[in-house]
Amino acid sequence: MKIYRFLSLFFIAFIAITFASCQHDDISGEVQGGGSGSIQLKFENGFNNLGGIVLNQTVQTSLQGQKHKFSTLQYIISNISLIDASGNEFKFNENNPDKGAFIIDQADAIAGVIYLNLDGIPQGNYTKVKFGLGIKQNAYILGQDGQSIFWNKAKQKGMTWGWAAGYVFAKLEGKYGTGSPSTEFKNHTGNMGNVTANNTPDLCREITLNLPTTARVIGQMRPSIHILADLNQFLSGNTPITLTGTNDMMMGSGQHLVNVTNNLAKMFKVDHVHNE
């Protein structure tokens, strides 16, 4: 009887330890084998890290006291990478705009958010996300035939010049003023074709963001990474900008638009990660 009781207690203890171990594995999110899954990137455009820009309505005042609002707010995201805790990097369709480039258009926002769904992501625990603002030269010089699908999408969105000039990387339009925003502005940034051959600035920028919480691509779990873009950086970034009659209708890669690009490259941050 004592032996039977001892074996019963031992069996109960064994089950408890095994159950606790399984729970621990589940919580830690360790990758079991290979396979792939999905990740969702959510872009939310706002001012001062507060989301919810409404085109033609939301007004912001710059550090210089100038008011502005957007009627058009678009930019291109490409060459997305995910980096794990060991520094391993997964590149999502690198230099392949047809499959790996996206247009963030505020007009398409759903409750203020634009959603990008990425499939074929290797299972893993990711701690950083990296992406390009614009299209890299390595992709552009592949020619129009190598990216005709995305080129046509961009053309429909008004995010291209002629092929000799290439893509519009960021398209900011609206009104500005001192008392109220009443004067029209259009600032379109982008490379002027082959920047080496044309001796023009390369306005494509690479952004790397740390994730506040590990994004776990495990089994059926599809994490979402919520990225805030602070458009206050447009005029109030590292290089303060005042819109005037000399720069309010500029397109291309002149010095004013280099300053705009450098400011916009600092506007992103990851607000939070959902693992679900």
UniProtKB/TrEMBL annotation:
Matching PROSITE patterns? PROKAR_LIPOPROTEIN (PS51257)
Q: Which residues, if any, are the signal sequence?
A: 1-20
Concerning InterPro entries, the annotation shows: MbnP-like_dom
Per the database entry, which stretches of residues form a coiled coil?
A: none
- Does the keyword field hold Signal? yes
A Pfam family the protein falls into = MbnP
Q: Which domain of life is it from?
A: Bacteria
Which ranges carry the Copper-binding protein MbnP-like domain? 37-250
- Write the record's keywords in alphabetical order, separated by commas: Signal
Query: Is Metal-binding tagged as a keyword?
Result: no
Q: What is this protein called?
A: Copper-binding protein MbnP-like domain-containing protein
Q: What is the lineage of its organism?
A: Bacteria, Pseudomonadati, Bacteroidota, Flavobacteriia, Flavobacteriales
